[in-house]
Each structure stands twice: as structure tokens, then as C-alpha cells.
Design brief:
By secondary structure, the chain is an alpha+beta fold. It has 9 helices and 10 strands. The chain has a 6-stranded mixed sheet, sandwiched between helices. Strands 2-3 form a two-stranded antiparallel sheet. The longest helix has 22 residues.
Length: 320
Amino acid sequence: MKRIMGGFLVLIFLCSCLYPQTPAIPSYLKHDDQLSSQLSTITWYLDLDEDFDVGDDGIEQISLAVIDLTQDPPRIGGVNMDNFIYPASVYKIYVAAEVLNQISQGLYSPDSLMVVKSPNDVQRSVAFESDKRPVLKDGDTVSVAYLLDLMISRSDNSAANCLIDLAGRENINKLLHEYGWQGSEVTRKFLSRKYEDPGYEDIRGTETCALHAADFLYLIHARKLVNPWVSMQMESFLSRQLDRSKFYSGLPPNTMYYNKTGWFSYWTHDVGIVDNGTVRYIVACFIPIRQEQALAKYAELSGIIHDFLYRKSGCGKSGH
């Protein structure tokens, strides 16, 4: 009987990993019905409330969460914010958090050197003309800090692969589980499955949801992601993001935006912390449409959300 019960418990555990439970809003955030209702109206107005055809991956929906940081406790609202979706390069923030966690534990330092090894060197070009840093090649020796900056600021896939190896996927996911972010595990590197490490060739693809990403950013803002040093380091790296084509494009001038974007095929995402000194909020937006169609949507989306939160704070119009 004990053997049968033991096997049953193992089955329950495996099923919970394959089919994560619906994420719950953490106790330090309060759900805001008005904010959720407004976000639903905004996504309807922008035709972002639809079922989107994402090719072989079937039908997908937007996952959007916003945390209003001007309230106490902070208020959260969203549209399908518990919907798990392919995050593209956004999940590099989870990798960075564990690397910084290990640095804070003294396992190595930001100046520790790593040798880039194939097949991790997948990046073939630089997307930003202003970025004169060369692509990483097999045999290059660079610091951990340099890899972190490349991975976040220009979303370098080679740097991400190196840092996933350094941190270890099992350690990254242990950190995620400590905060209750089951279902957002880092399962893949940024390369073809045929080059994956043994045991990862057939693993499910990485997913996350807007609720997890927004909560992650909230802990950075609150200086509670691992510890204050890790949180401030994460914010510093996010402030260097070179991609300003998405949510940032609709924000007023002189607005700070600490963010990480991701885009691939049908997926166009942006998550970040917005702060202009008066209105402060977190946004996590995962849109399952191609970048060429998504950019105009982002410009409108960010402008409308920012105006709403500005007015909600009692400051009148935002100046758009």
C-alpha cells in the first residue's frame, strides 16, 4: 500500500511540473478590478484581445500585467496575466538573477573570466548600429559582467548560452521555485535542439506568464529579489537596454524605463519598470504577433496605459 501511495505522489509531482497550477497573486499585491477592467478595454480597442494564430504552436492570447506602484499596497491588474506563453528573450532576466545570486554568494565575481565555447556562439550579427561590441566567437575570453551586460542590453544569445551553463538550469529553476514561479522554468538554451546538452534535447520549451514577470520586476523594485545588491544590480543592467522600440516608444520624454524585450517569429514582448518621478508602475506585456505588426500597437498601448495611470494618480494629463 505504501509503495502504491508513493508512486501516486510521484505521479502528482510530475504532473505539477508538466502542468503548473494557475499562478496566484502574491499577498503583498492587491488585485485592482478597475485596473483590470481598463486594461481589458485597452486591449479590446487595440484588437489585442483576440485569439492569435501562431503557426505550429496553435492559438495564443496576450498575457498582460500592470502593477501600480503609487498605491499602498501596490495594485495589480491584467488581461490573461496567468497565461503561460513563449517569452523569447525575456527569460534572460531569470538567468541573470541566478548568476547575480551566485556572485553574491561568493561563488565567483563579476570579473571572473569565461571562455566562449561552441556551440554556444550562435550570435552572428548585432541588431543595434550604435553597439560596436563584436559578436562573441569560440575561444573568446570575457568576464561574467561583460556577458551579463551583453545578454541584457542587446539580448545577446551567445552570452545567454554561456551564462546558462555557468549558472546551471537546475539552479536557475530552484531560485524561480523559491518565489513560487512554477511553470516559468528555464528549460532551453538559445540554440537548435540538436546542439542541446544531454537530457535537454526533447524537453518542453520555456514559458512564462505576465504575472510571474511582473512579480519578478516588483521584487527588483522593492529590493527583495534575493537581496538588495542583486536587486540593484538587476535594475542597473535593465537600465542599459538598447531596444527602445516597444513599450518605451509611447512613453513621455524624461521617463526612466528599466526593461527587457524579446522577439522571435510570432512573439513580441516587453517587460519593465516605468518611473518618471511622479507615476511609477511595472508592465509585463507578451503579445503573440510579429514584431512588424506589434510595434505600432506598443506605441499606442504604452501611451494609453501611461495616461490612465497618470490620471489615476491625480496628476491630470501626462503631456502626450
